[in-house]
Each structure stands twice: as structure tokens, then as C-alpha cells.
Design a protein that fits this description.
With 173 residues, the chain is of the alpha+beta class. Helices cover 35% and strands 14% of the residues. It has a single domain, classed as NADH Oxidase. Strands 1-2-4-3 form a four-stranded antiparallel beta sheet, with helices on both faces. Helix 2 packs across helix 5. The radius of gyration is 17 Å and the shape is globular.
Length: 173
């Protein structure tokens, strides 16, 4: 499949089968995320993989959607801002940008392997960090459930702006 087909295939999945995700399949998804580019190749990300049912339920206190923690796997994409590249002109750290790129690679790799994900950012970061026992200096960019989609139903059509509305040529109009 070409990239545009893969980008169209990737959807936010909110219902998962109970089938386990084999370790070798999970490893390929994580490898896709690991290969993401990062500013100055700093790779300030870490991937926290949660399979334990009790811990996934506890993550439900940070994001209270049952479909989220009922998936076979939950992955938190974290960053260590101190390890990220910092733009010298304004001191802006790129760690969160790098983490977002890694998350995007993870979701695309999962879609390529027939797995579903849903980028979750509306969680309580303090609660999630406590559940995951994260040390100081580690921040969660996003989390996603990971598993085989419960249905192969036709996806709802997505609307996107026309390309001409999204592209600015030479000057802001």
C-alpha cells in the first residue's frame, strides 16, 4: 500500500477485540515509532507499554473511557524534555514535537499491521504519571489503546479542507 492509502486507513478506533497482540507484532509497531525523526536525532521519547489489566483499569482514572483501557495494550508516548533539542533563538524545546512525531509513526505502523489505535490527549497527566510510576522529568505526550479493531465496518467519511485552503504560497493571505 502506498503512503496516502495508509494515511487514509489510519482511523481512531474505539472498540477492540479481546485478541492479544503478539509480542512480535507489538515489537514491529514500536520499531516504527522508534524510527521517527527527531530534532538533532536526540530521540527524547520513551514508550511505556501496559498489558496488565489492573494497571490499564487504573489508567481509566486518568481517562475514563472504557474502550480505552479494555484494549489488549495501552501505550503511553513520553518525552524527557531535558533530552530534547532546544532552539537557540527562543529556547523552545522540541521534545514534545519529537514525541508527537513518534506517536504518529506508531499509529501508522499499527494501521499498516491491521491494528487499531486512538490518539488520546484528553487525560489527566498527573494521574496517568502516577499510575505509570513515571520519574520526575518525564512527561506524557499522548496515550493510545492498541489492538485489533472490533469491527471491519466501512469507516465514516472524513472531511478535510481543500488542499488550496491549507497551502499558503509565498505570503499569508
Amino acid at each position: 500500500m502506498d503512503f496516502l492509502e495508509l494515511a487514509e486507513k489510519r482511523r481512531s478506533v474505539r472498540a477492540y477485540r479481546e485478541d492479544d497482540v503478539p509480542e512480535e507484532v507489538l515489537a514491529k509497531v514500536l520499531e516504527g515509532a522508534r524510527r521517527a525523526p527527531s530534532a538533532c536525532n536526540r530521540q527524547p521519547w520513551r514508550f511505556v507499554v501496559v498489558r496488565d489489566e489492573a494497571r490499564k483499569r487504573l489508567l481509566g482514572t486518568a481517562y475514563s473511557r472504557e474502550w480505552f483501557w479494555k484494549a489488549p495494550v495501552v501505550i503511553a508516548v513520553c518525552v524527557l524534555p531535558a533530552e530534547g533539542w532546544v532552539r537557540p533563538h527562543d529556547g523552545k524545546s522540541y521534545a514534545w514535537v519529537d514525541g508527537a512525531i513518534a506517536m504518529d509513526h506508531l499509529t501508522l505502523a499499527a494501521a499498516d499491521m491491521g491494528l487499531g489505535t486512538c490518539w488520546v490527549g484528553a487525560f489527566d497527566p498527573e494521574v496517568a504519571a502516577k499510575v505509570l510510576n513515571l520519574p520526575d522529568g518525564v512527561e506524557i505526550v499522548a496515550m493510545t489503546p492498541l489492538g485489533y479493531p472490533a469491527e471491519e465496518a466501512a469507516p465514516r467519511p472524513r472531511t478535510r479542507r481543500a488542499l488550496a485552503e491549507s497551502v499558503i504560497r509565498e505570503r499569508w493571505n
